[in-house]
């Protein structure tokens, strides 16, 4: 879908931003470009829609050399989500989202209708459409940024540290939303971040860059975590490389059973059978119920923190479906190890 | 000093004509000034080496005494309204040019980058993103230029124009204060009303600057 061939970028001040990059990004997947600042990841991203022109080499999107296309038309065909949203302060949210459709000559009515539809897609209320960007929270602005990038339904989406400026809680929400959207839309997404956890969370593939614009390794997250190409990659992945591997696996395959009776601790439920807390004769401890989509890492964490070593499993509505033991979770953690690391 | 009210009631037609003529001279100068400043400001904003030159030139023009400007223009355009308007326009340039350049400078780079990345071409970015966002600063300049022009029109009395300024010479020559007072009051009134209208225009044109969250 996106193909870099021997791409080199030398800035006028003499620094090499991207060094001899050859890389193919598959269609319909999220490729995350990571690395510390000045490693060339943003430059790489911006060369795709010609916001930066390469010094040499070719970049193809959908088989076509970007250099041979009109820059403005190329950019309209590629969604771009900018750092700190980059919304137009003088246009309403609706008109911000309608930017590219209007440039494509859809007409105001059709463009606005499409914008209203996208407002819903990214989880914003219809009233938000009439507001101006400064009247929204950082997280809401970022959602508008995503909606604006999606407006003309481009096959490719470029995202340049889109969630860098929001607080961690909102950041996690936005990441979840992006994963949900991607499941529906299957865009080819190129995502730049310096946060390795974000990369592991969102990426189908992760490309790690080192200062000087060198691509060191590009692989699926599990592969990258299990087999870092060198010490640089291992360092970048951090001390919790093994635990991150567990964060990639979900709880879905871990067996669950009925809540054991007669122990010191009982799991207290409300009338809708939603877990409330663990209770003994003279104490209460919090419970954090987990769904099938939660990671093995959070299950391990919860089982260590639980007084019984059991985790409460719930369905999407929060209703208890059963419990799993620390042993069950360990067994699956071992499986992750034998399948990926020791294989 | 007493006001001869009967003089006023006897000259309402003349006063209306002079007021309209006064306003026309001032507004023509501001409009012409804008017509010249907007493109020049774009050049000064985009081409850094020319910026200092253009802003400096407008400053130098501003320092020429107003009467001298009219005298210098006489051989070119004679004792006409054109001379008045050209003279006034020269003075509007210093505020209009500077404020437009500063307005364009104040547009965040990130916003311009976003417009480019969405596939907006440079001219459209200028007209639909840069100018609208520069508008509050440009309008501040337009307000100063308008008030300044309204007060300066009177100087053109020396070349036989000057709108309400004619009332001053008339009053001085006849040692009759009423026209002078009426002239001052009407000039002030014009300036205040014009400024209020410009504030209203800006309010209508910049809805995004209201209701700060």
Automatic annotation (TrEMBL), chain A:
Keyword Protein transport on entry: no
Keyword hit for Transport: yes
Molecular function GO terms recorded: ATP binding
Pfam families: ABC_tran
Keyword tags: ATP-binding, Nucleotide-binding, Transport
Record-linked PROSITE patterns: ABC_TRANSPORTER_1, ABC_TRANSPORTER_2
PANTHER family linked to this entry: OSMOPROTECTANT IMPORT ATP-BINDING PROTEIN OSMV
Family affiliation: Belongs to the ABC transporter superfamily.
Protein's name according to its UniProt entry: ABC transporter ATP-binding protein
Organism: Streptomyces viridiviolaceus
UniProtKB/TrEMBL annotation, chain B:
Subcellular location: Cell membrane; Membrane
Membrane topology designation: Multi-pass membrane protein
Domain ABC transmembrane type-1, residue spans: 19-198
CDD domains: TM_PBP2 (cd06261)
Source species, domain of life: Bacteria
Principal cellular location given in the protein's record: membrane
InterPro entries named in the record: ABC_transp_perm/SBD (IPR051204), MetI-like (IPR000515), MetI-like_sf (IPR035906)
Swiss-Prot/TrEMBL keywords: Membrane, Transmembrane, Transmembrane helix, Transport
Any Pfam family matching the protein: BPD_transp_1
Transmembrane listed as a keyword: yes
Stretches that traverse the bilayer: 20-41, 53-73, 79-97, 133-160, 180-205
Protein family: Belongs to the binding-protein-dependent transport system permease family.
Name assigned to this protein: ABC transporter permease
Lineage: Bacteria, Bacillati, Actinomycetota, Actinomycetes, Kitasatosporales
């Amino acid at each position: 879908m996106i193909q870099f061939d021997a791409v080199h970028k030398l800035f006028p001040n003499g620094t090499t931003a991207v060094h001899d990059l050859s890389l193919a990004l598959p269609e319909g997947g999220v490729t995350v470009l990571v690395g510390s600042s000045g490693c060339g990841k943003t430059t790489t991203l911006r060369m795709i829609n010609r916001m930066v022109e390469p010094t040499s080499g070719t970049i193809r999107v959908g088989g076509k050399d970007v250099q041979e296309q009109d820059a403005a038309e190329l950019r309209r065909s590629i969604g771009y989500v900018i750092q700190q949203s980059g919304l137009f302060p003088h246009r309403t949210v609706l008109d911000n989202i309608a930017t590219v459709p209007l440039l494509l000559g859809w007409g105001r009515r059709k463009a606005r209708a499409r914008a209203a539809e996208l407002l819903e897609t990214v989880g914003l209320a219809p009233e938000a459409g009439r507001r101006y960007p400064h009247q929204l929270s950082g997280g809401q602005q970022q959602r508008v940024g995503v909606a604006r990038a999606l407006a003309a339904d481009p096959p490719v989406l470029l995202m340049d540290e889109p969630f860098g400026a929001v607080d961690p809680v909102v950041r996690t929400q936005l990441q979840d939303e992006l994963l949900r959207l991607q499941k529906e839309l299957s865009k080819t997404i190129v995502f730049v971040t310096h946060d390795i956890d974000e990369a592991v969370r969102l990426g189908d593939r992760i490309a790690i860059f080192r200062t000087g614009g060198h691509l060191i390794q590009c692989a699926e997250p599990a592969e990258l975590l299990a087999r870092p190409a060198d010490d640089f990659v291992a360092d970048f992945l951090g001390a919790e490389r093994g635990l991150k591997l567990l964060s990639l696996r979900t709880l879905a395959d871990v067996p669950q059973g009925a809540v054991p009776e007669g122990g010191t601790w009982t799991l207290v439920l409300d009338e809708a059978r939603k877990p409330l807390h663990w209770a003994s004769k003279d104490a209460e401890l919090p419970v954090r119920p987990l769904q099938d989509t939660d990671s093995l890492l959070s299950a391990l964490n919860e089982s260590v923190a639980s007084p019984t070593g059991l985790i409460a499993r719930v369905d999407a509505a929060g209703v208890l479906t059963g419990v799993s033991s620390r042993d069950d979770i360990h067994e699956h953690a071992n499986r992750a190890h034998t399948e990926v690391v020791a294989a | 000093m007493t006001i001869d009210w009967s003089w006023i009631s006897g000259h309402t037609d003349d006063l209306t004509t002079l007021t309209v003529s006064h306003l026309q001279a001032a507004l023509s100068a501001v409009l012409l000034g804008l017509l010249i400043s907007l493109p020049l400001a774009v050049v000064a904003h985009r081409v850094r080496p020319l910026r200092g030159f253009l802003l400096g030139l407008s400053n130098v023009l501003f320092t020429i005494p107003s009467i001298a400007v009219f005298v210098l223009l006489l051989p070119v355009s004679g004792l006409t309204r054109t001379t008045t308007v050209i003279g006034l326009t020269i003075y509007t340039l210093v505020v209009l040019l500077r404020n437009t350049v500063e307005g364009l400078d104040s547009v965040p780079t990130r916003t311009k980058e976003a417009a480019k990345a969405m596939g907006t071409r440079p001219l459209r970015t200028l007209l639909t993103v840069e100018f609208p966002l520069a508008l509050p600063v440009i309008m501040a300049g337009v307000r100063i230029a308008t008030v300044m022009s309204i007060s300066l029109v009177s100087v053109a009395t020396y070349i036989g124009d000057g709108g309400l300024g004619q009332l001053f010479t008339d009053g001085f020559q006849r040692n009759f204060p009423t026209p002078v007072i009426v002239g001052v009051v009407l000039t002030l009134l014009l300036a205040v009303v014009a400024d209020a209208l410009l504030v209203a225009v800006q309010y209508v044109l910049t809805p995004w600057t209201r209701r700060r969250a």
